[in-house]
UniProtKB/TrEMBL annotation:
<dbReference type="GO" id="GO:0008168">
    <property type="term" value="F:methyltransferase activity"/>
</dbReference>
<dbReference type="InterPro" id="IPR013217">
    <property type="entry name" value="Methyltransf_12"/>
</dbReference>
<dbReference type="InterPro" id="IPR029063">
    <property type="entry name" value="SAM-dependent_MTases_sf"/>
</dbReference>
<dbReference type="InterPro" id="IPR020803">
    <property type="entry name" value="MeTfrase_dom"/>
</dbReference>
<feature type="domain" description="Polyketide synthase-like methyltransferase">
    <location>
        <begin position="55"/>
        <end position="261"/>
    </location>
</feature>
<keyword id="KW-0808">Transferase</keyword>
<keyword id="KW-0489">Methyltransferase</keyword>
<dbReference type="Pfam" id="PF08242">
    <property type="entry name" value="Methyltransf_12"/>
</dbReference>
<dbReference type="GO" id="GO:0032259">
    <property type="term" value="P:methylation"/>
</dbReference>
<dbReference type="InterPro" id="IPR050723">
    <property type="entry name" value="CFA/CMAS"/>
</dbReference>
<protein>
    <submittedName>
        <fullName>SAM-dependent methyltransferase</fullName>
        <ecNumber>2.1.1.-</ecNumber>
    </submittedName>
</protein>
Length: 276
């Protein structure tokens, strides 16, 4: 099963699991982490506030969300930046629902969605390119970054948000990381230094680098251990298919929370600018 099929099958889970506040889903029109807001609440919109501080406000602004999910980030940022946002996803279900939501909001002329990979040639150039928890799925992150960065205009910003393992993990945590990567289809998952080197290789200058892990809220370790046993027992014999994909996705999420609880992964926001 490829990543597009994985996300299409996971759609059913995100639709029904609106109470699980580690990751958002169809109910928030986005798939990314709930983070703590200044008022102490946890919201999928916190990341948008952090991103907005680094986005240019320019006439004719064009933004690209590479791995847009259900389009929520485009919808949140469009009123702030103006211009036009393009969202790309490899999931047919996500693209369809994002386009429908754009019509509901009256954004159909300024928020466009396509079923396309971030490894495909993109249409035109952009003042801002976002990749929120999407490049983790790349089989060749350097090549994916190169492909996206060639579409970034001079003076434009590239905003990367993703899980990044810490170096030198002990055996237990290294094993958890391997299971997380397998269940969530993250074949490489570079560390922070790797991403910094890749951004520099594209001629992009790092302007902001922040670990957002302190803003997350993983469940207590005892609860996660119980959930792992329960979900493992329900995992069907035919894995990575139907409910098997959902069960594996849940197991991957548990391993990620355990890694977060131990501080074994960072959840970083990196903002890099193209000179000019």
């Amino acid at each position: 099963m490829d990543v597009s099929e994985y996300y299409d099958q996971m759609h059913t889970y995100t639709w029904r699991d609106s109470a699980f506040e580690l990751h958002s889903g169809i109910h928030h029109h986005a798939i990314h982490r709930f983070l703590q807001a200044p008022d102490g609440s946890f919201s999928p919109d916190t990341i948008h506030t952090l991103l907005a501080a680094h986005l240019p406000r320019l006439p004719g602004f064009r933004g690209l969300d590479a791995g847009c999910g259900y389009g929520g980030t485009c919808f949140r940022l469009l009123p702030l930046t103006g211009g036009v946002w393009t969202g790309i996803t490899i999931s047919a279900t996500q693209r369809r629902l994002a386009a429908a939501r754009a019509v509901e909001l009256g954004f159909e002329a300024r928020a466009h969605f396509a079923r396309r990979s971030y490894d495909d040639p993109q249409e035109g150039s952009f003042h801002a390119i976002l990749a929120i928890e999407s490049l983790a799925h790349s089989r060749d992150p350097a090549a994916s970054l190169t492909n996206l960065a060639r579409h970034l205009r001079p003076g434009g910003v590239f905003l990367l948000v993703d899980d990044m393992p810490r170096p030198g993990l002990p055996a237990e945590e290294a094993g958890w990381l391997a299971e997380f990567r397998r269940y969530w289809h993250c074949p490489v998952l570079p560390m922070a230094d790797g991403w910094r080197a890749m951004l520099a290789a594209e001629g992009l200058e790092l302007a902001h680098d922040q670990d957002l892990l302190p803003l997350t809220r993983p469940r207590p370790m005892e609860m996660l251990e119980t959930a792992w046993v329960e979900h493992s027992a329900r995992l069907p014999a035919r894995r990575s298919e139907g409910f098997g994909a959902v069960a594996e996705g849940e197991l991957g999420g548990i391993r990620l929370e355990q890694l977060m609880r131990r501080g074994a992964v960072e959840y970083r926001l990196m903002v890099a600018r193209r000179p000019g």
